[in-house]
Design brief:
- The strands form 2 sheets. Strands 2-8-4-7-6-5 form a 6-stranded mixed β-sheet, covered by helices on one side. A two-stranded antiparallel ribbon has the order 1-3.
- Helices cover about 20% and strands about 25% of the residues.
- The mean pLDDT is about 90.
- It has 5 helices and 8 strands.
- It is α+β, with helices and mostly antiparallel strands and about 230 residues long.
- It folds into 2 domains: about 80 residues, 2-Layer Sandwich (Alpha-Beta Plaits); about 150 residues, Alpha-Beta Plaits (2-Layer Sandwich), CATH 3.30.70.660.
- The radius of gyration is 19 Å and the shape is globular.
């Protein structure tokens, strides 16, 4: 996404652009609320910027809002918290929803979720959920909100209803693939391949290679950034 946006900006501004994004997203991960910042000598108004950039972007990327900010603002460093949402279907999802929902048909279970939520909230060491390639210096992160529940989603195109598990987490920042590793581990709990106690033990646990595959990228979306 950032590569396409940078290319469009450089064409509109006719200059080299250094782009800062509020959050890093892996290939295949979606962003409904990605924030970027950049400096430019262009005299275009925010409205003109929005129209010009959108005319050059691919169909799956769009700019919703453009505004001028203080020189000190930095999309990444100024962010206070970020919220990610993950969706997986507990039944076969319509093929038109497959781009955003993982159709693994893993059933949701409420048992143990209160214990997991109580343990994960607050400041903890998430070394166990860290993947090679993380640029974060400290593995300690502050989890401000965490919930996981089952809901029904009505697809806008087919009007079909599918049951999904919605997982949402807000933190001051995240390690590389941390959210996908947490969700991947929760999937193993719901499959019955590890216990709630096994999951809880990984929080603040000793450093070792993450033993489960990360949850597929397409179910993850950056939904909110607070400044």
């Amino acid at each position: 996404m950032c590569g396409e946006l940078k290319k469009a900006l450089e064409k509109v501004c006719n200059e080299q652009i250094r782009l800062a994004a509020s959050g890093r997203t892996d290939a295949g991960v979606h962003a409904a609320h990605q924030v970027v910042s950049f400096d430019t000598d262009s005299k275009l108004s925010p409205e003109q910027f929005g129209r010009a950039i959108n005319s050059l972007l691919p169909d799956d990327i769009g700019v919703n809002h453009v505004t001028q900010v203080a020189p000190s603002f930095h999309a990444l460093r100024s962010a206070k918290t970020r919220t990610y949402r993950y969706l997986w279907a507990t039944e076969v999802a319509p093929f038109t929803a497959n781009q955003f929902i993982v159709s693994n048909q893993i059933p949701f279970q409420i048992k143990g979720m209160d214990e997991i939520r109580e343990k994960i909230l607050g400041e903890h060491d998430f070394t166990h959920f860290r993947c090679t390639g993380s640029q974060e210096v400290s593995p300690r992160k502050v989890i401000l909100d965490f919930h996981c529940h089952e809901k029904e989603v009505k697809h806008y195109f087919t009007n079909s209803v599918v049951k999904v598990v919605e997982f949402q987490i807000e933190a001051n920042s995240f390690l590389y693939k941390m959210v996908r590793n947490i969700v991947g581990s929760l999937m193993e709990v719901f499959r019955g391949k590890q216990s709630v106690q096994d999951f809880v033990a990984m929080i603040d646990g000793p450093e070792k290679t993450f033993q489960y595959p990360p949850a597929p990228a397409k179910g993850l979306c950056l939904v909110k950034v607070k400044y």
